Amino acid sequence: MKNIKGYHCSICGSEYSPNDAIYTCPMDGGNFDIVLEYNWISKNFSPDNIYTSTDYSLWRYQPLLPVPDPGGINTPLHSAGWTPVYMSANLARNVGLNKLWIKDESRNPTASFKDRASAIVVARAREIGAEIVVTASTGNAGAALAGMAAAIGQKAVIFAPRTAPPAKIAQLLIYGASVYLVDGSYDDAFDLTIQASNEFGWYCRNTGYNPFTAEGKKTAAFEIWEWMVHLQPRLTQNLSVFVSVGDGNIISGLHKGFKDLSVLGWLESMPRIFGVQAEGSAAIANAYTSGTEHITPVSAHTLADSISVDLPRDGVRAIRAARETGGGYLVVSDDEIMSAIADLGKVGIFAEPAGAASYAGLVKAIRSGLIQPEEPVLVINTGSGLKDVRAAMQAVKEPLIIEPTLTALKKVIV
Question: Where in the sequence is the domain holding 36, given as residue range(s)?
Answer without folding.
Answer: 1-42
